[in-house]
Design goal:
The protein has 284 residues and is mostly helical. Helix content is 81%, strand content 0%.
Length: 284
């Protein structure tokens, strides 16, 4: 009897060990790629109406990043550490948008690109560009709506407005070249967040908080959060359309796309490409 019990215990331990190994490897790079690719396919299949409203909501709520940073800047005592602390406020909008599963353009530079890389067809590319256009436009509309609320109504306390204006002037005033180059790390960071989220589980909040704080603390540029700041100055009459478009919007947009798509997404694809092609060969 004793040998049977011992063998049963050994089998149970072996099964437990196998399960632990499976859990530890359940989110290999190939599986993370597959999770994000399928999410991208779901996004590409969404109706135009749902994309528009989700994108507008994201553009409005990303203004919490500007508001949060302005609150910290207004009320924190001066000192070297204040800069690092106030940039925690920048994470608020991203937390609301990403955890709320809303359409943020810079997330789509990896989520919807992977299905295109996988399919490699003009039809898939057209679907991706359609989604990008809809989401980006909706994000900007939401950003302008939030900026109008800030500038044209008493919804925001007057003591916060100087900090919001300072943040806006800084974000849009660094010049086209600098804005472009600083947008590339921001694009990489947002794509990295998307890549890590499937295995983050209960740590998703901390993950988003940490890496979006890094965008602000590193003084990198983000097209959607920056659009709120751009819109604030435009509504006030302190920034012209030409300067806004060619001095800020288009350079930052290009930098975010390069960082999130050309750099991060293609690197992510490269590390799983051989495994995926090997799987296709076995299926064939």
């Amino acid at each position: 009897m004793a040998p049977l019990v011992t063998k049963y215990q050994e089998n149970a331990e072996h099964l437990a060990e196998e399960k632990s190994v499976e859990d530890a490897t359940s989110l290999s790079p190939k599986l993370i790629y597959e999770v994000i690719r399928r999410e991208g396919e779901e996004e590409l299949a969404r109706t135009k109406r749902s994309l528009i409203w989700s994108g507008i909501a994201a553009g409005m709520l990303i203004s919490l990043s500007v508001l949060g940073e302005a609150i910290f800047r207004t009320y924190l005592p001066g000192g070297p550490a204040s800069y690092l602390i106030e940039n925690l406020g920048y994470s608020l909008g991203f937390l609301a948008v990403i955890m709320g599963r809303m359409q943020l353009f810079t997330e789509n530079t990896i989520t919807t690109v992977l299905p295109v890389v996988h399919a490699r067809t003009l039809s898939a590319l057209g679907c991706m560009l359609r989604l990008w256009g809809i989401v980006l436009t909706a994000n900007v509309v939401g950003a302008f709506a939030a900026a109008a609320l800030i500038v044209l109504t008493p919804a925001i306390p007057a003591e916060l407005l100087p900090a919001i204006e300072d943040l806006s002037r800084h974000a849009t005033g660094m010049g086209a070249s600098q804005g472009f180059w600083r947008a590339i790390p921001a694009g990489v960071i947002v794509a990295l967040i998307v890549w890590m989220l499937p295995q983050a589980d209960e740590n998703a909040f901390l993950l988003i908080l940490t890496f979006t704080w890094l965008i602000a603390a590193g003084d990198f540029t983000h097209i959607v959060a920056g659009s709120v700041e751009m819109a604030v100055l435009m509504i006030q009459g302190n920034l012209g359309v030409f300067d806004a478009l060619f001095g800020f919007f288009l350079p930052v947009l290009a930098g975010n796309i390069i960082g999130g798509t050309i750099i991060f997404t293609l690197v992510a694809w490269g590390q799983v490409r051989d495994d995926l092609e090997s799987d296709k060969g076995q299926e064939g």
